[in-house]
Amino acid sequence: MTPTNLAGIFLFLIVTTLLAYPLGEYMALVFTDQKTFLTPVLSPIEKLFYKICGIDEKKEMSWKTYALCLLLFSLVGIIGLFLIQILQGHLPFNPEKFKGVKWDLSFNTAVSFVTNTNWQNYAGETTMSYLTQMLGLTVQNFVSAAAGIAVLIAMIRGFIRKTSETIGNFWVDLTRSVLYILLPLSLILAFILASQGVVQTLAPYVKAHTLQGKTQTIAVGPAASQIAIKQLGTNGGGFFNANSAHPFENPTPFTTFLELLAEFIIPVALVFTYGAMVKERKQGWAMYWAMMVLCAAGILTALYFETQGNPILKKMGVAHGTNLEGKEVRIGVMPSVLWSVITTDTSTGAVDSMHDSMTPIPGLIQIFNMAIGEAIFGGVGSGLMMMIFYALITMFIAGLMIGRTPEFLGKKLGPYEMVMASIGLLSSPITLLIFSAIAISLPAGLSALTNHGTHGLSEILYAYASTANNNGSAFAGLNSNTLFYNLTLGFAMLLGRFTTLIPGLAVAGSLAKKRLTPGTAATLRSDTLLFVVMLIGVVIVVGALTFLPPLTLGPFLEQLMMHAGRTF
Amino acid sequence: MKEIKQALMVFILMTILTGFLYPMAVTGIAQEVFPYQANGSLIKQKNKVVGSQLIGQSFTSPKYFNSRPSSISYNAASSGASNLGPTSKQLMEEVKKRIQKIRAANGLSPNQPVPADLVLGSASGLDPDITVQSALLQVPRIAKINCISPATLKALIQKNTIHSFLGWGMTRVNVLKLNLELNKVQSHCSHG
To answer: How many CB pairs under 8 A join A and B?
Structure first.
């Protein structure tokens, strides 16, 4: 925790915020049918798109139709991606002649990419053809992110509208997310990454003759285009097995900074979009500060403990006990820790170091960030939605304290909203804990472990925290390409995705129908410091109460064991 | 039902746009504007590819600057890490052996600390760099075997050093580049 490291982190947070604000304002224009500087270029393409697909862009949907379209689109995506993988052996752009992917792995991967999780039970460079990477995985990187943004925008409309039956058109929100936001940003990022050394070619793998007289086969591929959207869409599925720790996926400290910025910028910007759309920018800033305080606390805690090093290593003679296992020299300790916290705050799940090899407390922070539902900026769309659920619960608790009907942004909150928010918040902890309990009780669950002792429990907890919240990063020692894990992790991802998005739409539909209630002196305003503090408190209390027991047996205990010099 | 048709059509159009046109456009332009980087930053000698400047390769010979341990033996077609945790017995046993080996090869005293990157595996298994401390530690050994003055080697390291910026990236040298330059330095060994 040197001043240099703190300055490096501060620089990152400042640059992100300064760029996210205008992007947030721009997105608000896009989703409120206003003209932007890209409208003249993109509007004709957009109109053509609707014409071909038979979409009436003026026709809005009820929340149920909106949810139906989301489900149908996800189902089509899962089937399409499943088929491309199974059939890749017979399809073009496969210079390494990879065979079709096995059915259970195909299922897991299809669900994983459609749900914006991007959990990977495969290694990219030994499993997937270039065609699968582009036509299959890249597409879902775009549309799963766009679907997340669409649903959040629909939820925000629920707060803005008065006595309205509709919350927008799913196809329009989806198309605009891709055309106006994700595609232009991805193009820019892909070119910068390619200029820095991220590969982008359709040629076969390269044979090199090394200085020590060996042959080295070097995997290449169309990586830059995929990595750009993998970061921007909080997807996280690497082109290569080592993800953004691979030198072709992340060649320099500059690309580390850029890629991290890319995974953080849209979730932060959406907070400002929210403020702009509800026409009270202070609401956006209140969310921003609640999230930023939690984010910074996570970064500092994780960095403090990781830079302490590992006492076992130190005793053996490793200088300062610096824990560089699973870290790259060109990335370094601070950016590895910073990335691990941001990637679990947001639902990205890309990694630039191996989380499994970090010291226990950073691992605890990572699991906590995911387990609370990725509400600290979170996934594109889904993150702010989760924090709004927390805000509704906060208002409910505050309402109980002072004996008033809770309200949020001028809308009275009834039992229906509270039930939906609770489903959104509780479904993933329940999924996580139950599946983890099953996995640690069965030989099929335990046989996949690389690490033993308390760290083994952390590996399993991490896997279900990651999938049930659609993160996708891993304690990758868990060898989870087995029938048991492919299926259980697949179901955890499906539950995690749709038990968040659909309750969100239900809340939107219900609130859109309500009138606005004018605020009084007794109203707890949601743009005040008091509210921000309460919101942070609710997030921590819910997280702590739900996860304290397993986190104590996992990372906490391992921290004590590590200091006692115990190994397993 | 019209929603099913719409879902199919949007999926197909999005696949064409983001799965074909977008990556093809990026490939076309990157190949035109940054062909060296887009094809893997390959280093060629006498028309033979000797490696990529971004991808580490295994250097174990005492005459070269040695690279970091790799759980995949620098197989650049299958990246990956050990994923061993901070209380893993297996990891600690491996590290112990590596420390002994490094101390023996470089004539260090039994209690002298060893830089972490030389005894701990990287995340990709393909780390192209080592820290400057790790390079300097190997100077006496390489100087002796190759009959090159330590000062020449230190100058070589200094020339190839990339500095950390506010904690982003460690102060480091690229092992392949360093060893390629080492190959060019005249050896003064009389036994040839």
So the answer is: 389
